[in-house]
Every structure is written in C-alpha cells, then in structure tokens.
Amino acid sequence: MLLAYVDESYNDNFYYMAALLCPDEHAQDLVSALDAVVTRATHDYANVGADAELHGYELFHGKGCWRGLGRMPRALISIYRQTLAAIGALPVHIIVRGVDRRRLAARYPSPVNAHSIVLSHLLERIDEYASKSGHRAFVIADEIAPAEQWQCRDDLRLYRRSGTYGYRGHRLTQIVDTLHFAPSNASRLVQAADMVIFLARRILGEEDTDPRAMAANDQLWGYIEPRVVHCWCWQP
After folding, report:
1. 65-72 long-range CB contacts below 8 Å, 24 or more apart?
2. Is 136 helix (H, G, I), strand (E, B) or coil?
3. pTM of the shown model
4. Which domain holds residue 126?
5. What's 41's domain CATH number?
6. How far apart are CA 192 and CA 184, in angstroms?
7. How many structural domains does the chain have?
8. Is-contact 174 136, C-beta < 8 A?
9. Rounded distance, CA 221 to CA 231, Å?
10. What digits encode the pLDDT tens for the residues 74-129?
C-alpha cells in the first residue's frame, strides 16, 4: 500500500500541490526520522519546543513554532535541510502539480476552483503511479474546511465512476476508500508534504531572484530531486 500524503502551497499567481508517496512499511521510519530532526533542534536551541511543527512557511520565515530562530537564518536553513535529507533518504516518491492562476482566470470566464483542478491532476498521477508500481494508494491530505472536504470526496466518487476531465481523463481505480484529512500539526508525514511543496512553489514560481537565495533553494531541492517522479505546472 502506498500512503499518499498531500498538501498545497499557493499565492496570487500559482497554486501547487504535492503528494508524498510512502510505502506503508516505511511510514514509521520517516516519522521517526522527522521526529529526530525536531528533537535535535530542541536540544540545540532552547527556544524550540518539542511539539514544533515542520512547516515550510514558518521555517522559511522564522515564524510560528520557529519564531525563536527568526534571527538565525542559518539555523532555520539547517533544519529545512535536515528535513529534506530525511525524506530523500527513504524510498518515497514525490508528485508535484500546479496551475497558473492568472492564465486560468483569463481563459475561463466563470470562476474555476484552482484547488479542485490541481487536486484532480494530482489524483490522476497518484492513480497512474500506483497502477504502474502494482500498488493501491490511500490518500491523506492536510485538513481543509469541512465543506471543501465533502466536495473533494464527491469529486473522487465522480472520478471513480466517470473519470477525470481533460485530455488525460480516465477513471481512477487504484485509490482506496475516500480522501482522508488530518491536521498537519498531528501528522509528521503531512508536514513532510508541506515542506516539499512550499519549496517547490518558491522554485517553480521563481519567487526568489537573489542568486544566493536561488542557490540555497536549489541545494535544498537536491536532497529530494531524485525522488520526484512527476513535476508540472499547467499553463491554460
């Protein structure tokens, strides 16, 4: 069984989602490795709590659980690096999908939900990867508003029955049960997906223009790049 952990990252211009595909027999290994990153940080820095969440935005900007390191950018980068190294060291695979929100709005006169579009593309790729690797996939996503959760589950039922939309549209057959949602602060593996997609958005969206920041981002991405099996942003 593949456990597919899903999270999103977006701004006014782009909407991205990532799936971290972890074989069930390695899930606890990754949890332990990520727990160790936080334990090490609590030992090295007195102002980091044992329940600190590995959250891309907060680590990048020194906010939330990591605000005590706000003036220690090297420490924050080191923790980000350790997290991605832990992910890359295990036999997981990563799928990244996105959409250009500006072009989406320009092409379609009525409002189109970027989350629904990107999720459908991501589920297609999860289903395809699971089929090719001879697995079923169980999908756990970061918690969203209850009404949106119901919509996502309804969409999955439709994709199973009638197929997804677009030129790659097909019926999803490998995703078991329904979509499950978990609060990120309770799941290290949802946090892992968050760390991946936040960095992916910054790189793919070309948000950093300083050569030093770009080089640092590329170095971080290098820890997980061999695990990426698909990465694409739709330009409508």
Report:
1. 69/45, 72/45
2. coil
3. 0.96
4. 2-234
5. 3.30.420.10
6. 9
7. 1
8. yes
9. 13
10. 999 999 999 999 999 999 999 999 999 999 999 887 777 899 999 999 999 999 99
